[in-house]
Amino acid sequence: MAQLKTARTDASVDDFIDGIENEGRREDCRTLLRIMKRVTGKEPAMWGASIVGFGSYHYRYESGRQGDWFLTGFSPRKQNLTLYLMAGFDRYASLMAGLGKHATGKSCLHVKRLSDIDLGVLEELVSASVEHMRKRHPTD
Fold it and tell me: pTM value?
């Protein structure tokens, strides 16, 4: 069975955040650290070289493929901050409507900067997603 390319590492989250060149992006990441730590009750960990994740859950597909992944997390990409809300967005239409300027993928929320969105709504989304994942999968 193939190994995931992105796995939890022992790299320093603080060093990673401190290494972000753009001061505004760095501060946004520190804000996300506080929000996600508060919601999950977990310390951040690096997943791969550029994702900060919180907590973990074990998944198993019908195909037999299984692995571990973070409950929620983020990555400061060049164009946007990418936030990972593993429960997706379909069930959170009313929250998404009040979030502010964003784009989504299957489980990815893309924002240019945190000042573009309502942080209270973001915290509700993160909390709802984490709660959903904890109900569906074994977590740490």
Answer: 0.91
Query: Is 48 within a domain?
Result: yes
Domain that holds residue 77: 13-136
- As for how many domains the chain has, the answer is 1
Q: Please give the structure tokens belonging to residue 107.
A: 């489980």
pLDDT bucket at 4, cuts 50 / 70 / 90: low
**If we measure between CA atoms, which residue out of 106, 108, 104 comes closest to residue 83?**
108
Q: Of 138 and 124, which is predicted with more confidence?
A: 124
CATH of the domain at 127: 3.90.1150.200
Which residue is it, tokens 């998404």? 96
Q: How far apart are CA 66 and CA 60, in angstroms?
A: 4
